[in-house]
Amino acid sequence: MPPTPLVSVVVPVYNRAAYVGEAIESALAQTLPVHELIVVDDGSSDASVEVVERYARPELRVLHQAHAGIGAARNRGLAAATGELIAFLDSDDLWERDKLALQVAALRESEAVQLVFGQLIEFLSPDRAADLGGSLRVTADPVPGRCATTLLARRGAVERLGPFDERLRVGEFIDWMARAADLGLESLMLGAVVARRRIHGGNTVLTRPNGDYLRAIKSTLDRRRARAAHGG
Questions:
Q1: Is the pLDDT of residue 210 over 70?
Q2: What is the rounded CA–CA span in Å between residue 126 and residue 231?
Q3: Is the pTM for the entire model greater than 0.90?
Q4: pLDDT tens across 5-23, in order?
């Protein structure tokens, strides 16, 4: 059997001191050990960096940048990554212990598959359950997770996709995946649950206005129209 491919994990963090430690623990607890865990601090003003630095491991690196958004933080991590496979973990989410093992096995079964996702479960963060329980609905049923936290990608696919659009403070992953569709990159959705998304009321998808989502959609449409106009 060929050697297990090296997995680089990129964790962007911005003011998530309350949650980033659990996220890191879920990555370090993988049944298939990570090659490197690259935490990119996006100019946090809380104790996020101090929390991360408690996990002193050879595979853990912390990079710092002025606050520029999650797309810029992911790009910084990607530029530093050396693994054959790339994974992302949002700093308030959690991985199931066999997430990487299941996805690496799926990639080994098919050389054509470039991107592997899995099922996702949402949960209400225990520290916010009392004040958010009545205002936010969280379903415990698994759903197909087409998001950064559930993805494992071949390095070649990531290089073809190029960097995240740093102009988008939200919706950058939607734009990235639209590019994957445009390029015809084959993806696979596993039936197993691979991650849990924490709902705490401060999630970017809940607090950011919809403008960047609309810009991401417009960018995709503009790109496809331009390609069609040139016969692509």
A1: no
A2: 53
A3: no
A4: 999 999 999 999 999 999 9
Distances 59 to 22, 24, 78, 89, 111 between C-alpha atoms, Å: 17, 11, 15, 15, 27
94 to 46, 84, 124, 144, 217: CA distances (angstroms): 20, 22, 12, 16, 28
Q: Are 23 and 94 in contact (CB under 8 A)?
A: yes
CA 149 to chain CA centroid, Å, is: 4
Q: Mind listing the pLDDT tens digit for each residue in 30-41? A: 999 999 999 999
Measure the CA angle with vertex 145, ends 217 and 37; round to 5°: 100
In whole angstroms, what is the distance from residue 198 CA to residue 88 CA? 15
Q: How far is CA 113 from CA 27, 47, 128, 146, 218, in A?
A: 23, 39, 39, 15, 28
Please state, in angstroms and rounded to a whole number, the distance separating the CA atoms of residues 137 and 165.
30
CA 192 to chain centre: 17
Query: How many residues are there in the chain?
Result: 232
CA dihedral 144, 162, 92, 193 (to 10 degrees): 20
Q: How far is Cα 194 from Cα 171, in angstroms, rounded to an integer?
A: 22
Q: Which of 81, 58, 98 is nearest to 12 (CA)?
A: 81
pLDDT digits (tens, 9 = 90+) for 58-69: 999 999 999 999
Q: How far apart are CA 53 and CA 41, in angstroms?
A: 11
- CA of residue 209 relative to chain centroid, distance: 20
d(CA 171, CA 60): 27
